[in-house]
Amino acid sequence: MPAMNTQYRFLATLTIISLMFVIGACRAQSNQSSTQTASPSPQPKTITAADLTKLRWIEGSWKGTGDIDKPFYERYKFENETTLRVETLADEKFAEVTDTSRFELKDGHFGSSSGESGSVAIAFDDNSITFAPLGKARNSFRFQRESADSWKAILNWKAADGTPKERVYKMERMPGSN
Q1: Which residues of the chain have pLDDT under 50?
Q2: DSSP sequence for 101-137
Q3: N or C: which end of the chain has fewer CB within 10 A?
Q4: What is the pLDDT of residues 54-77, one digit of tens each?
């Protein structure tokens, strides 16, 4: 009997060690998979209300063109020193607002949110501001000043297959716009 008891202990120990290895390998694979699919949290740029005065160049009514069938129209206006309202307009008459969003400064971070998606500024200077996605949002974007009457909206994202994509819209100030 002693030989059988020793053999049983050996097999039990071997089984436990094997199970521990399999469980450890599964955990490592699970952690690796979640790391690969989860996007890292963006590092928000600390911004003050005084800093936002540098973004006043974006105020006005704009016509957007690019890789699209027809132009689109937007109006940007600071409601106060910490909130930028962005209105999407039906056409060049600027009479009908079809959508409104707001970028707000809260706790030193400037961004916008809608439901489970949003964006936060991660870079900011006199001529541009860059936003990273939050929540379910998937694209980053940058507003890049070109002149007093034009700027570019540059959107970046990854296609379903992981291929990086970019779309650039040229924004031109509409006549009579501040």
Answers
A1: 1, 3-38
A2: EEEEEETTEEEEEETTEEEEEEEEETTEEEEEEEET-
A3: N
A4: 999 999 999 999 989 999 999 999
Query: What torsion do the CA atoms of 65, 70, 71, 73 make, to the nearest 10 degrees?
Result: -140
C-alpha of 5 from chain center: 62
Entry pTM: 0.76
- How far is it, in rounded angstroms, from Cα 80 to Cα 49? 10
Task: Give, in order, the Cα–Cα distances in Å from 51 to each of 46, 78, 79, 135, 144.
Answer: 10, 13, 16, 26, 16
Q: Which tens digits make up the pLDDT trace of 119-130?
A: 999 999 999 999
**Nearest 10 degrees: Cα torsion 8, 10, 15, 18:** -170
Ranges of beta strands (E only) in the chain are 60-65, 72-80, 83-89, 97-106, 109-114, 117-125, 128-135, 140-147, 150-158, 164-173
Distance in angstroms (rounded) separating the CA atoms of residues 161 and 84: 35
